[in-house]
Amino acid sequence: MALGFLCSWQVAVWLCKRSGKNADQLTSMLTGLMLSAIVGARLAYVIEHWHAEFAASPASILRFDQGGLMFYGGFILASIFTLIYIKIKKINLFELSDVILTVLPLGHAFGRIGCFMHGCCYGKITQSKTGVCFPKFSPAWWEQSSSNPPLIPESATQSLPVIPTQLIESAATLTLFIVLFILFPKKYKKLGFITGVYLIAYAIIRFMIEFLRGDPRAAVGPLSISQTISIGLIAVGIFAIAYSRKNSKKNSNYRV
Q1: In whole angstroms, what is the distance from residue 209 CA to residue 211 CA?
Q2: What's the whole-model pTM score?
Q3: Which of 61, 65, 108, 143 has the most CB atoms around its CB within 10 Å?
Q4: DSSP readout, 124-151?
Q5: Contact (Cβ atoms closer than 8 angstroms) between residue 29 and residue 80
Q6: Do the Cβ atoms of 124 and 163 come closer than 8 Å?
Q7: 3-state SS, residue 220
């Protein structure tokens, strides 16, 4: 995650300088954005897994070193922080969000590699050659050994092979970053366009990957919480692109 934040921010500053945007605005909000993202991600995970992991030991909420972060929770709280920040500083939302969301998939790609190394956010059991067996005491091992009935004995040294959804999402978000990075020089003047593309594209990526996830998922009817949020993000993304198109036409009419 630290590498993801660092790399993303360096690219964001470079994009600001290339497009004539104020890089100091991004740098000044870096600490608050990082903290809000981490706290939001942790809170969302704790809420979703309260009974299974934290009800008996609330103090473990502070054990960030044991993993347990939910991307959408971090995204939502970081978004709230950004809205408060632009209100105080009187900045156009899309001036910041277009830059931030261009580089966010790069940081996300690093984060999902971290998920893979920890063993969380794993996929469903598979017999495919691409399946990955995680070691004893990993999240996948715990879930499979403690299920009713157990899928593996407690003496098992590894889990059953599961779909490496972490790597799939890492590859998908890296691809999304490349696309947005290429689009940015062409579209940065159309405020909201990059934001809309990111929201729609990532929401679709996450919605589809949720079907492959094998870790415990809180549900909202037939969908997971993440899929429900994804639907909402698609709606917001459509609004952002519509705003971009409308704003571009106004600017075009003004120049004429």
Answers
A1: 5
A2: 0.89
A3: 108
A4: -B--STT-BPPBTTSHHHHHHHHSSS-S
A5: no
A6: yes
A7: strand
